[in-house]
Amino acid sequence: MMMDVRDIKDPEIRKLVRQERNKADNLDLFGEKPPAALMTPYPLSPEGKERSAKLQQKYVDRARNIERCWNRIQLYLPELLITKDPHRVLEMSTAHGAMLEILRHYGHDVVGNDFANMVSRRAGQEMSQFRALNDETFTRTEDDIGLPIEGATEIDWPYRLIVESIALPMKIFDAGHVPYPFEDKQFDVIICSQAIEHYCHPTDWLPIVDEFCRLSRKTVFVLLNRLIPEFRAKEDYNAAFTAFRHGMRAYDRNGFHCVASFVHWDQALGFKLMAK
Predict the structure, then answer these.
(1) What is the C-alpha to C-alpha distance for residues 143 and 173, in angstroms, rounded to an integer?
(2) How many C-beta atoms surround the C-beta of residue 176 within 10 A?
(3) How confident is the prediction along the chain (276 residues), in pLDDT tens digits per residue?
(4) What share of the chain is helix, strand, coil (3-state, %, to 5)?
(5) CB-based burial, 3-16: b 16+ in 10 Å, e otherwise
(6) How far apart are CA 221 and CA 108, in angstroms?
(7) Would you say 172 and 116 are in contact if contact means Cβ atoms under 8 Å apart?
(8) 197 CB contacts (<8 Å, ≥6 apart)?
(9) CA dihedral over 161, 167, 173, 178, signed as positive or negative
(10) What pairs with residue 170 in β-bridges?
(11) How far is CA 87 from CA 30, 99, 197, in A?
């Protein structure tokens, strides 16, 4: 069983464990710095700064976001930093957009996706992690920071003002419903980093990966979050999570197969699929 950092009583030991687990995101991997042009603060309006105060603060620091994503691209998708051919890339749940900022800087044609964040209980409303794929009975009136969902006159999402400040093209839709609003094979690369957990119960994650393969011509990369104690204690969720990881390791359908798995936070949580 994986140890949860929050179970460690000694604060110094807890800090050391966190640092060890985050090494891949923090180390200078190859002695190459991220593009300097991307290391300035987000050019936010007063409204954007007010919105940012409601988000996790570690994700509103542009330089830190860029550094983290710079390392992840080097680890998981290094070909996108060295290829001379521009790729069309879709990132699911792009949030602050740092992954796409870097890829755009390297000449790629990028599109982000996002939607309302519904992974916490707000006023007793359901959490998206436990719904079924294409669940028409699941409804929320507000997202986790209080933005309206049902009946809203304009589509909004938590990171809108950040991604608008850096002019990332976005496609807003609920990733817990398939098919997605794209034709087959519109993208070369699909990235879903620590996001699929927001869409539905892990029992239905493989059909979502099948949808990624429908859209992609070359590569699908999926990185999971590790299970938090609340979810690990749920036998059905834990079993489905484990089954998904095994299913990804053995993935061989829709013209794609698994070519690599990656350790993240002391467990195999990253999976790279490529077209045959």
Answers:
(1) 14
(2) 22
(3) 455 656 677 777 766 666 666 677 778 889 999 999 999 999 999 999 999 999 999 999 999 999 999 999 999 999 999 999 999 999 999 999 999 999 999 999 999 999 999 999 887 889 999 999 999 999 898 999 999 987 666 789 999 999 999 999 999 999 999 999 999 999 999 999 999 999 999 999 999 999 999 999 999 999 999 998 889 899 999 999 999 999 999 999 999 999 999 998 889 999 999 999
(4) 35, 20, 45
(5) eeeeeeeeeeeeee
(6) 16
(7) no
(8) 119, 129, 224, 225
(9) negative
(10) 112
(11) 23, 14, 26
Q: Using only C-alpha atoms, what is the Rg of the chain?
A: 18
- Give the C-alpha separation, 222 to 190, whole Å: 8
Backbone angles phi, psi at 217, to 5 degrees: -95, -25
Q: Residues near 83 by Cβ (< 8 Å), separated by ≥ 6?
A: none
- DSSP 8-state secondary structure symbol assigned to residue 129: G
Q: Which tokens sit at 117? A: 């964040």
Please state, in angstroms and rounded to a whole number, the distance separating the CA atoms of residues 146 and 171.
21
Lookup result for tokens 């030991």: 13
CA distance 79 to 57: 31
**Residue 105 contacts by C-beta under 8 Å, 6 or more apart in sequence?**
35, 37, 38
- Alpha helices per DSSP H over 126-253: 160-165, 205-215, 229-232, 235-249
- Whole-Å CA distances, 32 to 27, 67, 75, 84: 11, 11, 13, 19
Sequence-distant (≥ 6) Cβ neighbours of residue 100 within 8 angstroms: 89, 91, 94, 110, 111, 112, 168
Residue pair 2/263 in contact by the 8 Å Cβ criterion: no
